[in-house]
Amino acid sequence: MTLRILTVEDEREMADLLARGLRQEGYSVDIAGDGVEAMARAAAAEYDIAILDVMLPGMSGFELCRWLRRQHAGLAIILLTARNAVDDRVSGLDAGADDYLTKPFEFVELAARLRALRRRDAIGSTRLDVGGLHIDTAKHRISTDGGELQLSRTEFDLLRLLASHIGRVMPRSEILDEVWGSASFIDPNIVDQYVSYVRRKLDAVGAPVRIATARGVGYELIAVER
Ligand code: CA
């Protein structure tokens, strides 16, 4: 799956430059201009990496970093500091950042840091508990109190996607995009097929959630009524 990066930078030119470079490296990139916008985006989508400029209007990059760290434990965070101040570096690491870069920097250095983070497996090595599902994204395992689900990689990606959008119907096309990539040669019916596989496996362990069909729209993970 493509890694998703949230870039938070108020200088539009700098943000666009970063986004362009990161997309060329194969990342999917969204830009937020300040902390408030970043919080809204992070609440609405699941990111693997956040790149935060420290100097932002309103909420600082440090405050934003602390908030993101609390809300999204598995998110990898890189801070961009304006000067090579030891204070900034320490504040950044205290705030829960994984790494930092001092401006100005060469894009190749940022790209190298990102690769290093991925090697360290700081990305996606998290465990999430959603709706009674225990999701280990590093090991690609999902279990419930009733036992572990025996999932293929695709089934895992599908269930994890639905679990990270609780309270929302995921359109079929979006599921297809996220799990299978936007390859147009794939028959969209594959989504329904895999939903039925995952349903059977959820049933088998008596999972506290089930996949509901929103007719003509898509699917939603909801709690089982007991
Ligand atoms: Ca800035």
Q: What does it look like?
A:
It is built from eight helices and twelve strands. The protein has 226 residues and is of the alpha/beta class. The protein has two domains: 4-121, Rossmann fold; 125-223, Winged helix-like DNA-binding domain superfamily/Winged helix DNA-binding domain (Arc Repressor Mutant, subunit A, Orthogonal Bundle), CATH 1.10.10.10. The strands form three sheets. It has a five-stranded parallel β-sheet, with helices on both faces. A four-stranded antiparallel β-sheet has the order 6-7-8-9, covered by helices on one side. Strands 10-12-11 form a three-stranded antiparallel β-sheet. Strand 11 (209-214) and strand 12 form a beta hairpin. Helix 2 runs parallel beside helix 3 (61-71), helix 6 (153-163) packs across helix 7 (172-180) and helix 6 (153-163) packs across helix 8 (189-204). The protein is elongated and about 55 Å long. The model has no long low-confidence stretch (mean pLDDT 86). Calcium ion (CA) binds next to loops.
The biggest beta sheet, please?
5 strands, parallel
- Structural class, from secondary structure content? alpha/beta
CATH C-level category of the largest domain: Alpha Beta
Strand arrangement across the biggest beta sheet: 2-1-3-4-5
- Residue share in helices? 40-55%
* Fraction of residues in β-strands: 15-25%
| pLDDT < 50 runs, ≥5 residues | none
**CATH fold type of the largest domain:** Rossmann fold
CATH architecture of the largest domain: 3-Layer(aba) Sandwich
Query: What is the assigned CATH homologous superfamily of the largest domain?
Result: Response regulator
Order of helices and strands: EHEHEHEHEHEEEEHEHHEE
Ions, cofactors and other bound molecules? calcium ion
Report the span from N to C terminus: 35 Å
The overall strand count is: 12
DSSP summary: helix tally: 8
Query: Any idea what the radius of gyration is?
Result: 19 Å
**Whole-number average pLDDT?**
86
- Shape field: elongated
Please indicate the count of domains: 2
